[in-house]
Description:
Shape of chain A: elongated
Number of helices of chain B: 24
Helix content of chain A: 40-55%
Distance between the termini of chain B: 65 Å
Strand content of chain B: 5-15%
Number of strands of chain B: 18
Helix content of chain B: 25-40%
CATH class of the largest domain in chain B: Alpha Beta
Largest interface: A-B, 37 and 53 residues
Number of helices of chain A: 7
Oligomer: heterodimer
CATH class of the largest domain in chain A: Alpha Beta
Number of domains of chain B: 5
Structural class of chain A: alpha+beta
CATH topology of the largest domain in chain B: Rossmann fold
CATH topology of the largest domain in chain A: Glutaredoxin
Low-confidence stretches of chain B: none
Number of domains of chain A: 2
Largest sheet of chain A: 4 strands, mixed
Largest sheet of chain B: 5 strands, mixed
Mean pLDDT of chain B: 94
CATH superfamily of the largest domain in chain B: NADH-ubiquinone oxidoreductase 51kDa subunit
Strand order of the largest sheet of chain A: 2-1-3-4
Structural class of chain B: alpha/beta
CATH superfamily of the largest domain in chain A: Glutaredoxin
Radius of gyration of chain B: 26 Å
Low-confidence stretches of chain A: none
Amino acid sequence: MLKKISKMPFKGTPEQETKLQAVIAECKGDNSLLMHVMQQAQGIYGYLPIEVQKMIADGMGVPVEKVYGISTFYAQFALSPKGEYNISVCLGTACYVKGAQDLVDKLCEELKIDAGECTEDGKFSIEACRCIGACGLAPVLTVNDEVYGKLVADDIPGILAKYQA
Amino acid sequence: MYRSHVLVCGGTGCTSSNSAAIIEALEKEIEAKGLTDEVKVIKTGCFGLCALGPIMVVYPEGSFYSEVKVENIPEIVEEHLLKGRIVKHLLYEETTQTEDIKSINETNFYKKQKRVALRNCGVIDPENIEEYIAMDGYQALAKAVTEMSPEQVIDVVKDSGLRGRGGGGFPTGLKWSFTAKNAADQKYVVCNADEGDPGAFMDRSILEGDPHCVIEAMAICGYATGATEGYVYVRAEYPIAVGRLQKAIDDAREYGLLGKDIFGSGFDFDLHIRLGAGAFVCGEETALMTSIEGNRGEPRPRPPYPAVKGLFAKPTTENNVETFANIPQIILHGAEYFNTMGTEKSKGTKVFALGGKINNTGLVEIPMGTTLREVIEDIGGGIPNGKKFKAVQTGGPSGGCIPASLMDTAIDYDNLTALGCMIGSGGLIVMDEDNCMVDIAKFFLDFTVDESCGKCTPCRIGTKRMMEILEKITDGNGTLEDLDELESLANYIKENSLCGLGQTAPNPVLATLRFFRDEYIAHVVDKKCPAGVCKKLMSISIVADKCKGCTLCSRKCPVGAISGTVKNPHVIDPAKCIKCGVCIDTCKFGAIVKG
């Protein structure tokens, strides 16, 4: 799967870097914790721009090629920033057979972006995700940590309106 | 002592439908009524009937409240908990159909189930180690390390007939004996909680509802195989499960049930959690170990098998969550307890995640050998909206579809394999007449194309080529030769791929070709999608006789493709129509059809 790599300039703060360096200091020396460091870094920065990947590589003493290889291999690692509200539509089988694709289509139409992209104002991003395990509520989408279940495409404008204000 | 216990589901499904707010409201209301010393509220793991969440059960009566809302809470507390009068109109409908109100265990959904792996889910508070201990928790570990030799433990597991529940179906006891045989300075136990099948969630529910049983089983496995360290590799998408497992590990350490010299036996064992990052291939055991080591999760050729050279190149036993969840009961009650359930070659019970077009979506645990019909009609409550049942998909992206005509198949490893399907991790996705089987095959293949790690050519390129042929077919450009090409490519990929992902990736296509060839032929020869799913093959038209000219559809059409005057039949301009189907949904007279 090809990942979209952000062209936006890196805007990390010194506080973020201090946090990341603390994580690295804790894990340095055990390369099996590399993914853990990257997960923490994504928590701190929201995504993994190349600048952050370089810091991790330098800190952990591994080639940046290895960090990049891992970040492109696993779906969880994002190479572009997500919107203030990240909308994640479950495309697991149970949701798919109950019309989850219609939800993605409607979202893309409403926000005028594709899945995997972020709106220009940085407010919304859309991603398709694998099963979140809430199959009883299919089809499901999440906006950040908020879960919406048993949806139809017509529910989408109402959900977006809650966050647009 | 409390006179009443209120169990509220805190699994992912019910949490998503707001059970946390219900617990809060309950506790507040109970305090306001001065019942704090008489009624205890417990947040449990998953009850299984996720479709009706949030679920709440009041004991001792076993009253089953479903789809509970915060505003129902005052009434339930006032009437049921204070005055002892069950609030009938808020109960799960089925329990109120007879004169005596049925308890939760008497409902159709639960009464055919046999819960071994899920026995504590929805029963205990998963975050309280003492509740697990009260349910005979850690007794099996005590029995193993103080009364049994490692060989005896392995023999019991072998005799039980337990086979791997993650998909492979390999005999668990045999697997353990391989690791036990190999001497090494360090061995490992790995629990595979990277539940990748989209549509299966039993592993998550076990970790959320009963995390200690997995910890206990891993320690028993460590004792039997000579390992002192274990790793649980769990999906990062399961935050509730990860949190509860971490708490369970911390509590077990504090109680001396993990760590040095467990039960004074001299046996040491400790556990670590590693989070996955969203890669389906990591469900394959060698890829999972590569990932724990901090690499791209690519599989390794076998042999050497993990029992010889596994995690960090040391002998390793890897089992799935559900497999482990059976172990404490087997050790505690003996091999016969388990091997008297199930069929000749598939012993015990299996948990299935029922999903898709079925009334009772949720988790069910049934003895092996139960028929698909019993699961779908009796337990699952049939298909919603009076639609016709078409097929059930088993085994996720590695499995296949079983048509309605084979509904009396008894579920076990060998029967499903004979149909070109597999039990896999236990996802059962039900499909009705509105689902197109070619589209479903394409959905799964799209998944495997995406998730193929790229290490071996047959899987990386072969699945992509198959995908292109399927797209050609759903676009209306397919030929009959394409079907033969699909089949031969599929068989080539099965035979030549490095790991389980590639070896099973063509199964959804092969199974649909076998049982639903007529649908493929309709796409290829008639250029029609019988279920009306494949948009490029769909045409929508208005039946003039039925159209009343209400104009609703023309107002709703997003592209203005429908024209006509009031009270006269309307028509659709096929050149403008984008086949979104909005008109079909809006028409009150059933006058708009696709075909």
